[in-house]
Amino acid sequence: MSEHELVETIRSADRAINARDLAAMLDFYEDDATLVVEPGRLARGKPAIRAAFEGIFRFFHQQLEVTQRDFHVIEGGGVALVICNLTLRAGGGSAAPVSLERQPTYVFRRSADGRWRCAVDNSYGVTILGSHAPTGTPPG
After folding, report:
1. Residue 129: pLDDT band by 50, 70, 90 thresholds?
2. Which of 76, 108, 112, 131 would give a disulfide with 116, using CB separation of 3.0 to 4.6 Å?
């Protein structure tokens, strides 16, 4: 079974993130994309996503490195859900080294130019469910 073309798209985005190449990285997003910055905090649109990544890079002292593997791509109707395993590492500088694993969920949409672009970037995956009450849930 051959890899879905989105796997290489995501690996290219990871290379752009690891190189801190914001211009290349932002090209992987739809203009109206949403990034889960942290549970309960979203960045909507490329300018907000750019600012969020600038903050993330500063937080990790420009030492952020991401890799992803074990991709599952479910495609239909011009959109695709991607689930995988992500390793995030950061270290050096005055901060303690960080190494963590996540199972992100992404939604991609095929653009008019034929390229897949990310519409929803949720590197936290379903762990956000335990972080706060879902929108639309009645109290009680």
Report:
1. confident
2. 108
Give me the pLDDT at residue 138, please: 38
Rounded to 5°, angle at Cα 54 from 59 and 47: 145
Question: Rounded CA gap, 117 and 137, in Å?
Answer: 30
> Comparing C-alpha atoms, which of 52, 14, 40, 34 is closest to residue 119?
34
Give the pLDDT confidence score for residue 94 in this predicted structure. Answer: 59
How many other CB atoms sit within 10 Å of the CB of residue 106? 23
pTM metric for this prediction = 0.86
Token pair for 1: 């079974």
Q: Given a cut of 90, is residue 133 above it in pLDDT?
A: no
Domain boundaries, the chain: 5-126
CATH number corresponding to 5-126: 3.10.450.50
Residues 140 and 134: their CA atoms lie apart, in Å, by 13
- Token pair of 72, please? 């599952």
Tell which residue, 63, 115, 117, 55, has the closest CA to residue 88: 63
